[in-house]
Amino acid sequence: MKHEGVYLPEKLDESSLKDKIFTSAIALFAEYGLNGARMEQIAEKAGTTKRMVVYHFKTKETLYLQVLEYVYTQIRASETRLNLTRLPPVEAMVELVESTFDYHAAHPDFIRIICMENMQRGRYMQQSAYLRKVNRSALILLEDILQRGQQKQLFSRSVNARDVHRLMSSFSFHYVANSYTFTLLFEEEADSQAQQAYYRAMAVQVVLRYVCP
Question: Which residues, at least 6 apart from 131, have a Cβ–Cβ distance to it below 8 Å?
Answer without folding.
Answer: 68, 69, 72, 125
